[in-house]
Design brief:
The protein is mainly α and 209 residues long. Helices cover 60% and strands 0% of the residues. It starts with a helix and ends in a 5-residue tail after the last helix.
């Protein structure tokens, strides 16, 4: 499926909004804009989009503040046609790598656990599922240090990161990344939000899209 050229010009005036909408006149989120420019029935689950990009994109759209959400607009036409493009395994690994080496260290550092943060940041890039499995002991050690710090508010963040580290298949890692996008970005730093946007851009443009 390809974009409808005359609808691309509408992107110049679109302001992406949080949540779902009945039709384009009531507003659009990121994935609804994808369905619109692709000429699909108006939905936030367009058939033309990679399910991983769809899941991450829906959650990222809803946790970003209004100004940063607009940075996603140029990605709309690039998401069209990503369904079944053969890159979802790699996208899942990118999500797991981000959780382990970016997202979790950010939380650790906010809790004052600098050494634990560095232990994850300096891991090799998680390029295969064997790499993810090899990271398990390091993630386990960092988790225990966070627990010892006694901060119960970190439980949700750790559940997401630990699930990613234990994952043996991309769908499990993607569940963790989806949860991180939904639960972790809003209360944290601008830097982490910007990092998530940059990750999503890289996931979208795999294979030259």
């Amino acid at each position: 499926m390809t974009v409808i050229p005359e609808r691309l010009t509408d992107l110049d005036t679109i302001a992406l909004k949080k949540g779902g909408h009945r039709n384009p006149e009531h507003g659009m989120c990121l994935l609804e804009a994808v369905s619109y420019v692709a000429g699909e029935p108006f939905t936030d689950q367009p058939q033309c989009a990679s399910p991983i990009l769809g899941s991450f994109g829906r959650n990222l759209n809803d946790v970003l503040p209004d100004d940063k959400r607009q940075k996603l607009v140029p990605l709309v036409p690039q998401i069209v046609g990503t369904a079944g493009d053969g890159h979802d395994q790699e996208r899942g690994l990118m999500a797991a790598d981000w959780l382990i080496r970016v997202y979790t260290p950010t939380w650790l550092r906010l809790a004052g656990l600098e050494e634990a943060a560095v232990s994850l940041e300096t891991l090799p890039r998680q390029a295969t599922w064997d790499d993810v499995e090899a990271a398990v002991p390091v993630v386990r050690a960092a988790r225990e240090k966070a627990r010892a710090a006694g901060d119960a508010a970190w439980d949700a963040a750790w559940d997401a990161a630990w699930a990613a580290a234990r994952a043996a298949a991309w769908d499990a890692a993607w569940d963790a990344a989806r949860d991180a996008a939904r639960d972790a970005l809003q209360p944290t730093t601008d830097l982490l939000q910007d990092s998530a946007i940059e990750l999503f851009e890289r996931m979208v443009t795999l294979g030259g899209k």
